[in-house]
């Protein structure tokens, strides 16, 4: 008699998203980088083409401050 082969379940491709992910929160750790963010800091995500122009957060802040100073006084926050 021949043995019948058992089909293995195909693994999902990495680019496919699962419907549900189960996380084990017992193994979660605090964010070790949270202390580096000062109080009142806001994180902003730049598009890749914009981020390619700037080399540091200081250069982004300098440009934004120059734009703010050029704005009319009535439109400033």
Question: What is this entry, summarized?
Answer:
It is built from 2 helices and no strands. It has helices spanning about 50, 55-70. It is an all-alpha fold.
What does this structure look like?
- The chain is an all-alpha fold and 77 residues long.
- It has two helices and no strands.
- The protein is elongated and about 90 Å long.
- Helices cover 23% and strands 0% of the residues.
- It has a domain at 41-71.
- The model has no long low-confidence stretch (mean pLDDT 82).
- The longest helix is centred in the C-terminal third of the chain and has 14 residues, at 57-70.
- The relative contact order is 0.05.
- It has helices at residues 48-51, 57-70.
Tally of strands: 0
Q: How much of the residues is beta strand, in percent?
A: under 5%
Run of helices and strands: HH
Instruction: Give the C-alpha Rg.
Output: 25 Å
How far is the first residue's CA from the last residue's CA? 82 Å
- Average pLDDT, to the nearest integer? 82
- Which descriptor suits the 3D outline? elongated
Helix content: 10-25%
Largest sheet: none
Unreliably modeled segments: none
Count of helical regions: 2
Structural class by secondary-structure content: mainly alpha
